[in-house]
Amino acid sequence: MGCFFMDLEIDLHNLTAIEAKIQLDSFLNTAPKGKVTVIVIHGSNRGSVLQKMVRSQYKHKRIDKKILGLNQGITELILK
Length: 80
Known about the structure:
With 80 residues, the protein is α+β, with helices and mostly antiparallel strands. Helices cover 29% and strands 31% of the residues. Strand 3 and strand 4 (74-79) form a beta hairpin.
């Protein structure tokens, strides 16, 4: 049996930083185990509060790595 990867997505647009953290915590706590990539859509056109929270300040025990791509409105989280 081979290894498989799963991509999930969560959109945090229009949330406050506190609401976004609560949503992201809940989402990551219930994400399937294994090779999972979570695409976090936080936007960047209407300010950088959520972007900064996700990219710099947010910590969770399941996050192995954060990937900051060319699209400033998303961050990829690689889960353990």
